[in-house]
Design brief:
Layout: E1 2-11, H1 19-28, E2 35-39, E3 42-50, H2 54-71, E4 76-85, H3 86-98
Antiparallel strand pairs: 1-3, 1-4, 2-3
Helix pairs in contact: 1-2
Length: 99
């Protein structure tokens, strides 16, 4: 089963993520269909992770996101994480887009 993992983070530096480094991190996360939203030092990362065990899905998504940004010199600290089934994600995040 596939899940959307939404990870809310802050940059360690307190500065916004450099756009080129964000693009590079996105390339490293490409197999997980990443999307990012940034407001100042706050970065929201959404990934699509396949798996049967919810704990493994959460762990994999968080570790992948944090590792990708750290590897390009933009370490993040996690504030929160949420897990959504595909149907719930579509209802919560895409219902206004589709209407």
């Amino acid at each position: 089963m596939g899940y959307h993992v939404v990870i809310e983070t802050d940059t360690v530096s307190g500065e916004p993520v450099d756009i080129y480094r964000a693009d590079e991190a996105g390339g490293r996360l490409a197999p997980l269909g990443p999307s990012f939203f940034q407001q100042g030092p706050q970065v929201s990362v959404t990934l699509y992770v396949e798996g049967d065990d919810v704990g493994d899905v959460l762990r994999s998504g968080v570790e992948s996101a944090l590792r990708a940004f750290e590897s390009v010199g933009e370490p993040l600290t996690m504030r929160s994480v949420a897990l959504y089934t595909e149907a719930e994600f579509d209802r919560v995040f895409l219902s206004d887009v589709v209407s």
